[in-house]
Design brief:
The protein is built from 18 helices and 8 strands. The chain is of the alpha/beta class. The chain has one domain: Alpha-Beta Barrel (TIM Barrel). Strand 6, helix 13 and strand 7 form a beta-alpha-beta unit.
Amino acid sequence: MYSDALLAELPKTDLHCHLDGSLRVESLIELAKERKVTLPSYSPEGLRELVFKSHYRDLPDYLHGFAYTCAVLDGPEALERTAYELGQDCLAEGVCYLEVRFAPQLHARPDLSVSEVLAAVDRGLARARRENEATEAVRTGQRPPFRYGIIACAMRMFTAGFAPYFRDLLAVLAHWPVKEVYGAASMSLARAVIDARDRLGLPIVGFDLAGAEAGHPASDHIEAYDHCHRHFLKKTVHAGEAYGPESIFQAITKLHADRIGHGTHLYGADMLQAEIEDPHRYVRQLSQYIADRRILLEVCITSNMQTMPELRRVEEHPFGRMVEDRLSVSLCTDNRLVSNTTVSNELRLATNAFKIGPSELRRVILHGFKRSFYPGSYREKRDYVRQVIDVYDRVAEKHGLPAVGREQQ
């Protein structure tokens, strides 16, 4: 229905994009050689065959590649380079607003603080932004300027050997219950990122909770999220990816989530663990609550297809039902390298599988801009969204899409 040229040219967002899952494979190889990190192959073709595959057995197989990407993101130079290249890659496919997320504690060390890790990523993205703003298309208003924010991920769980920061933390808190150690790590991160935002002026726009969902409840991290809530830092949570609707409910009610990462099992009445009298009514009411509150779902179709064996065809993904129920949804990459995808590719999958019409396509793409954690004032965000809408409508008209009504912002 839609040409590849149209999907590439439309202004887009990527609100759920992990830095450590979105390296260029060539850069991964180069950084690994520089840092003496052993890879199973030193060619792009070999790594795509052995590690970054089109299909995975399960989630552990999918996550295997992060052992290599996290190992090479060692030091500010690697972080800055990777962030800059990600900004370039986004712009190359028409993504003009990016929210990149990662766990800064995994890259901190005695001589590199969490704030310095965040600053390195900001430098890389700021460089991409400056280069973009100097282009004729942006200077003449033909394209929206590149804007970005950084989301800091706390971890639901971790192991002592995963990063120097956690080894030090475990040594100090060895006598604490494990769940309290996780909560303490999240609280430490919450304080650090708010300080980086307020004292250093870094564009930290959100706080996230990632990692193994089943068996590691969001309730362990209430204190950190309350701290972010009190300091007006927006919040998203990986929920409903490997666990059922209750995980989404907990993220919204206990962690004040403004958005939900994935939310794939929102409609999974059969996954409910508690004794609920009418499971189908529960998920119906939950989805309507999310719709009414305009809580955006950061949907990652390719990633879900790769990690959830029960999804055999794209048509079985709940994205179609989410659109039909008029939920606020945005298509995202999750991990550009690990999932070998782009936002344009996610749009292609969705439009082919669910027959998304022009008005629905426009709504899905603009939801990403409107529900973004934009790193500026509300007035600045409104002006930016207005500019995006004008560009979107010009591109749509150029490619022969029927005009749709201009909604109020």
